[in-house]
Amino acid sequence: MVELEDEHPMTxxxxxxxxxxVLSWPPxxxxxxxxxxxxxxxxxxxxxxxxxxxxxxxxxxxxDPNPEFLTVxxxxxxxxxxRT
Length: 84
Prior knowledge:
Layout: H1 12-22, H2 27-45, H3 52-63, H4 72-83
């Protein structure tokens, strides 16, 4: 497994090794890799960023063992209240 945390960044040699393996994959899988990388580059160009508070809220919600789900009707109702 590749470590992606900031305190353990990948080395250039690790990146090169992965790219060499990718070149041995079937063309359709290589195209998948290209697509993912293009999406990542597109995200990097986006001016949109989460604040630290927003990141904390996303992490809190992802860790919730009992998330609250709304019905479509409840979602529509909440959006309707926001518009007024």
